[in-house]
Amino acid sequence: MDIVIYIKGTATESPESMYWNGIYTGIRYQCVELARRFYLIKYGLLFEEVQGAKEIANIQTIYHIEHKRYVYWPTYMNAGLPVIGSLLIWDATEEFPKTGHIAVVTRVTQKYVEVIEQNYGTGRRRIPIVNGQLKSKGLLAFKFPPY
Description:
Layout: E1 17-20, E2 23-27, H1 31-43, E3 45-46, E4 61-64, E5 69-72, E6 76-77, E7 87-90, E8 101-108, E9 112-116, E10 124-130, E11 133-134, E12 139-143
Antiparallel strand pairs: 1-2, 3-4, 4-5, 6-12, 7-8, 7-12, 8-9, 9-10, 10-11
């Protein structure tokens, strides 16, 4: 599955509301928009809008578009390893002030986890695994895909 990652080129680019099949996903270039769009396209699921990415750790249900119902969606504090499709959630740090950050896991190996993300770096990066744990400052929690 190919998904577009939007990289903001300049500080003067204006924010744009993004939609997928008529459903609002967020503001272009923001990390939460990518996560919401990914879950809509891949799983047909939509999580509620948030003021900051770190708030996603507090969401306990996710809406299944086709079945028109909410599904339980637990949060796992940073322990163990995520699976492909998991969301990684960072708390507010100097790197991600106030709102925190979120990225989507696209690959898991024994040495690292690859993620896609918006509003940070090049849109793709590897997060090292050290002693069976992800090593990334401020990493708060995981959200596994519900299926």
